[in-house]
Amino acid sequence: EIFNYLLDHGADSNATNKNGVPLLSLAIHKNDVEVIKSLLNNHVNIYNLDTNGISPFMKAVNKNYSDIVEFDITLINNNPLPPNPRNVFNGNSPLIKAIKHNNFEMVYSLLKYCKSNHVNLNIVDVYGNTPLIISYMRGYEEIFRILVEYVDINQRDIQGNTILHYAVEKKDLKTIKCLLSVGADVNALNKLGVTVLDRAISKGEYNIVKYLLLNDSINVNQRNKNWEIPLITVINDSHYSQVEKECIVEKLIEKGTNINLVDKNNKFALFYAIQNNNFVIVRILLENGA
């Protein structure tokens, strides 16, 4: 009551202590909700930085205080942003912090604000991981599902991997189906020259390979880091049974693979089929123009 009385009678809501820390930042640090609300209702400058350059908004995110963040967002929506809004929403990435807290309410509030105010959501953490990748690898399913609706599904991490690369790596067919249904790039190539299909083949995931090959956009002539097309990779791979290998080869041919493309050693798919004594594959290749 005394605090509110002072504010009502002209006390400066933007005052700082002797160390230069604003009242609002101190209140957030102590999680004093009543003082925070009093300050916010008395036109406190929500963009004031503390001595570490952290805004009250970011401090609330760091502390995982959903209600305060929600209230801050309401105020920000009703007040002009400072000249550089990046300091408020992108500097240390509140969205990434909220995801790492596994705080769905805070993530959802930030997503709605950013979409309404055209704030870029395609950010990465200090390790180069995207919001989607962070939520997926941590198993935060609810946050992952809402992020899929808001962010670029094909955003890449520091290694050039998309979320589809990660889903294939985890052998997660359910998520792969979900991602492809909302526009994930089935031909995504990372910085090491690994395609999504190539990764699936190398993992020995027959069902995932089959599903990827159902996609109308799949490029079955895309080369990997070894300059191999998927056809050559499959013929040389030891993960698959003879029946599985034949099925994949036939599907690749059906999808338009060029069976006469060579790898970096200037070898054809037919050469490797003969080398592996796989005479059924040899016959299939010869019947299709090898």
Automatic annotation (TrEMBL):
The keyword Cell membrane does not apply. ANK repeats lie at residues 159-191, 265-290. It comes from the Eukaryota. The keyword Repeat applies. PROSITE patterns: ANK_REP_REGION (PS50297), ANK_REPEAT (PS50088). Keywords: ANK repeat, Repeat. InterPro entries: Ankyrin_rpt, Ankyrin_rpt-contain_sf. Pfam families: Ank_2, Ank_5. PANTHER family: ANKYRIN REPEAT AND PROTEIN KINASE DOMAIN-CONTAINING PROTEIN, ANKYRIN REPEAT-CONTAINING PROTEIN-RELATED. This is Ankyrin.
